[in-house]
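Hi W., the nicotinamide-adenine-dinucleotide complex you wanted:
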Amino acid sequence: MVVGRVAVVTGGASGIGLGVSERLAARGDRVAVLDVQGDAARHVAKELEATGGQAVGLAVDVRDRAAVEAALDTVRERFGPIEIAVTSAGVDAGGAFTDITQETWDRVLAINLTGTFHCLQTVVPDMLAAGWGRIVTISSTSAQHGAANRAHYVASKGGVIALTKALAIELAPHGITVNTIPPSIIDTPMAQAGAGTGHVPSVDAIAAMTPVRRAGVPADVAAAVEFLCSEDAGFITGQQIGVNGGWYL
Ligand SMILES: NC(=O)c1ccc[n+]([C@@H]2O[C@H](COP(=O)([O-])OP(=O)(O)OC[C@H]3O[C@@H](n4cnc5c(N)ncnc54)[C@H](O)[C@@H]3O)[C@@H](O)[C@H]2O)c1
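Structure:
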């Protein structure tokens, strides 16, 4: 069994991406933490190295194709070809449909969907060359069942689910699996901020409505990501793996 894969985690400086970075580093992967918050990404990488892991933190805005390509070249020079990609970089957004400006629509789609496209198109050639790869995108339950007052966010995450399914079929013959995790409420800075602006209920309120009666934590998502990025998960592709405490549609 191969240990110590090369993994890239976008949005790795906070929340779910941070939890995933910690989990993959702990199992021995060399982890590249990419985030628009460059200082935070570098700090996370230092912390991972302090606990015995191998990591690099890089400032990247996933909307910027050239920056994504340059960062991933740095990862290849440091660690070798990229074998695992987890795309957690994203932004939340709220507002009545009739109030959404084109500028906001474009920004949310550019980060959540096109940013995922940039990262995956840049890493997939490494995986094709190796005949092995694991991709996990982070989508949202809101795209599975719809949600009021967040049409741009929901549409962007619906696009992520569709992109995941399309790539799963296309890449399956090459030993590359592509799955998505659509979380429900995970207690992160994004979830707290969304409740703060009032376009989603508080974390505690959603936890009370969740069958397991708690909100998720980044480690819940990270555990599922670790499994999906394992050798054992090679027959699982194109799936929406709910990490949602039993949240039902
Ligand atoms: N927390 C939840 O309840 C929840 C639920 C469903 C889906 N999600 C999704 O999970 C993912 C992670 O969210 P989180 O809750 O951990 O939020 P978070 O805000 O804690 O983390 C998101 C990270 O993405 C980074 N980021 C934002 N824009 C970026 C850009 N342009 N380029 C690079 N990095 C960028 C941020 O700096 C941040 O570090 C997001 O895609 C989010 O939509 C979260």
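The pocket of nicotinamide-adenine-dinucleotide is lined by residues 10-11, 13-17, 35-37, 60-63, 88-91, 111, 115, 138, 140, 183, 185-186, 188-191 (CB under 6 Å).

W.
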